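Collaborator request, handled under Task 6.
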Amino acid sequence: MANQPDTATVVAARAGDPAAIDRLVAGYLPLVYTIVGRALEGHADVDDVVQETMIRVLRNLGELREPEAFRSWLVAITVRQVRDRFRARQAGEHALLDPDLRDPGADFTDLAITRLELSGQRRETAEATRWLDEENRELLALWWLEASGELTRDEIVEGTGVGRQHAAVRIQRMKGQLETARAVVRALHRQPLCPELAVLIEPWDGRPNALWRKRIARHTRECRHCAPAWQDLVAAERLLAGMALVVPAPSLAAGLSAGGLGAGAGGGVKALAVKAGLSATQKLLATALAVTVAGGGAAAAYTLNEPAEPAVPQAVVAPSPATVSRPPSLPPSIAPTSKPAPSRTSASPSAKPAVPAKQASAKKGVGVWKFDGSKAALKNVGAGWYYDWAAQNDEIPGPAGVEFVPMIWGKQNVTGATLKQAKAEGDVLLGFNEPDMGGQANMSVEDALAAWPQLEATGMRLVSPAVAFGGDTAGGWLDRFMAGAKAKGLRVDAIALHWYGSDFSAAAVDQFLGYVDAVHQRYGKPIWITEFGLMNFSGSPKYPNDAQKVTFIKGATAGLEKRSFVERYAWFGLPAVGDSVDFGLYRDGDSPTEAGKAYRAAG
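Structure tokens returned to the collaborator:
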């Protein structure tokens, strides 16, 4: 959204300013293209619908009464154009266009995979979208952009024309279908292919549809060979968070009309100008704009670097902050292939003075995933300990004097080899990561209790499974686990918690510390807070501003340091690179964000 024009540009464009009109078209074309492309599943109609949408926007811009609501208005127009095309297809003679007749270059899933360089679970998720029902693809197009930070829930509600509660229910159903489709994609790509599945799909023509989605999904649930397809599915919100918009294909940027209304680099936007009834001067500027879009100039400078992917499903799968609906921005266990560009708010590396390392605090720690400068940042921030959601720290070695604490992430990691790795790393062992969350460890209390004796056999000090929420709730996951451990005579030496607050006011400090106190009062054991931070995963803004982060970090860490029963705490997380710039602490080894400076001063 940072590259999209502001309200002042909308006002100027509404008044007829040609340059503002140019900026408006260039700034919002990728958003419209992404919605339409995903909703129409890359159908050859995509270019036409995008053009029709932009023409309608330009023609009706003068009627927009509330410029600050331009994005919502644009999304609503886009959705109406998509629905009109759906209805025209269904009513037309060729309603069921054979997939072989589609423009192969317009397959939106392939474009997203190629242009965003998707791999692993992100690629699986993109491929799974082909299996969604038509009504869900429209909703997916909007929700995908919400998860990636390009749209808000209010804009989705406005665009779909349904109430907030109804929209939430529809999104939840769509997400369920998407998860099923992801399992289907996994099962079909597994090598060697399950022999029973091969027999089942023998009559299938290879084209995704609802009937075969249901048949293959049912098989995967019942087949021991295929059942792992449902395991270690990183929450779709996490996979989509921070992903860039897909910039329109050169053919669309250079000639939006499938009927050839323009030619050369400027033809498409010139065609828009002509059809929208713009002046000769505006047409000339629109031509210049088209050259900029087609040539990759500043007007369309959308990043195409995809956030790095969680390692799946080895010893670590990405942790998820505390509520089911949230899309935390960056999973741990990632390995960027190159150093990200500094944040636009950061000073030039050559201009900044070196920041001396902070003396380590025994309590203060961080969750770390791989990024350039991790070792230096761990020392600079003054962390006494860290973890990376894995049983060993081969990928992210820390500096001398900073303790690494291993974790047994989930049920699949309870093996002799993994436990041996963990025991070699130290004396303390963290239990399962968010076992109360689908997409995370996702374990029943019974499974956790059955596995716990193997952790206990290491002889290490044991910290409980870290629940995503409800640690102080009677009858909650943690409560039942602790009661079961007591009944079975199992040892739990400390309690682990995660907490994320969506209230960015000064009250967040007391909300957080009150939760920590309540959990301690319930179980009477030492407390480890292994993830905490401020994130609003169901509304906007998703993240606090710098001043709010600094206020929270100062108050929260001061309170944690004063509480003798709090043994350790860890901010989520150390890197402020890629799509974690809004909540991370360090851009590189010695470049703390404002939040990083506040956290560095703690302890």
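The cover message to the collaborator said: "The chain has three domains: 1-97+245-295, 117-243, 362-601. The longest strand covers residues 527-534. Please let us know whether this matches your experimental observations."
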